[in-house]
Design a protein that fits this description.
single chain, UDP-N-acetylmuramoyl-L-alanine:D-glutamate ligase, alpha/beta
């Protein structure tokens, strides 16, 4: 479904990349964990690698520490075919770390080490504007909105990408422990809401942003705005819902043996962006959009079958195997 690298338009992903330390065994607290495996992470970076692994063309824009972990992460992007032209290194701050608890059901809890980490210190004047202007899709989250100067860099990058004609894609990727308060998180996440043309939220994020206990159409559509072309609500093992100006519906999930949900949403987003970057008319054709979302659901499902996000992100052939078997 995603085409060869040579002909694809560029998808630029903006934000954080970090090291996740994942316990060697599932279902234990951080204190009980006998040891940890280091895994590269950070939602925007995961999306970039997801795109590249599916045959798309991706670049990452962000800041890493000028340390062993930072250079390791930049190397991982390059090894996975993602352009690292938008990366800056900070000599005064470390690469961000997160300790992640894998509960027995595969869900996660986080403890972050960022005080401040390099990603938080990206300045507007450090942005590779030529790279951002060349994006056909510009994708971002909300963690880069938490503190200055990264917040100003985020807003500047969005503005430059939009002026150059890019489609703006937003996955808030709520991580409450990183925000000063729930109120601030909601306020800042919504502060750029009306800029994005494609927005993906999880069912939990939908409830957080609306204050509702329901994940129904009425609740989802309360987040609609006039610039939106597509609003997606992912429902984990229950698939996803989609909303456009003209139609709405849901796409069934794929049932797999879930080991670790890390990166499933990022894999879903990468698959979606890969399949609309060169043909936005998909967003106005329900039959084709449903096909793309089925592909994206398959990508998300496969990603949950292995530990860690990046090692689990699928190739087109792996996705086709799952699609053909269902």
């Amino acid at each position: 479904m995603a085409a060869s690298n040579g002909e694809k338009s560029l998808i630029v992903s903006f934000g954080e990349m970090l090291i996740d330390f994942v316990p060697t065994v599932s279902g234990v607290s951080l204190a009980e964990a006998p040891g940890f495996i280091k895994a590269p992470g950070g939602a925007p970076a995961n999306v970039a690698i997801a795109v590249s692994r599916l045959g798309g063309r991706a670049a990452f824009v962000g800041k890493l520490g000028d340390d062993e972990f930072g250079h390791m992460l930049a190397g991982i992007l390059k090894q996975n075919g993602v352009s690292a032209e938008g990366i800056n290194f900070d000599t005064g701050a470390r690469t961000a770390l997160a300790f992640v608890t894998l509960r027995s059901d595969g869900e996660r809890e986080f403890m972050f080490y960022r005080n401040p980490s390099a990603d938080m210190l990206l300045r507007p004047d450090e942005l590779n504007l030529d790279l951002i202007k060349s994006a056909k899709v510009f994708h971002y989250g909300s963690i880069s909105l938490i503190v200055e100067p990264c917040r100003s860099a985020h807003l500047k990058a969005m503005e430059v990408a939009k002026e150059a004609g890019a489609l703006l894609s937003y996955d808030p990727n709520l991580r409450l422990p990183l925000w000063p308060s729930k109120e601030e998180a909601k306020k800042q996440i919504l502060s750029i809401w009306d800029k994005a043309e494609v927005i993906k939220v999880s069912d939990e994020e939908l409830m957080f942003l609306t204050g509702s206990d329901n994940v129904d159409d009425e609740t989802a559509l309360s987040l609609w705005h006039d610039n939106l072309k597509l609003l997606l609500v992912t429902l984990g093992e229950k698939g996803c819902k989609y909303y456009t100006k003209s139609f709405r519906g849901s796409v069934d999930p794929f049932h797999v043996n879930t080991v670790d949900t890390t990166g499933a949403g990022d894999s879903f987003v990468g698959a979606l962006l890969c399949n609309i970057v060169d043909d936005r008319s998909v967003l106005e054709d329900e039959a084709r959009l449903r096909e793309v979302l089925r592909f994206a659901n398959a990508c998300g499902a496969i990603t949950t079958t292995k530990k860690g996000a990046i090692p689990a992100l699928p190739t087109v052939s792996e996705v086709q195997t799952l699609l053909n078997g269902n």
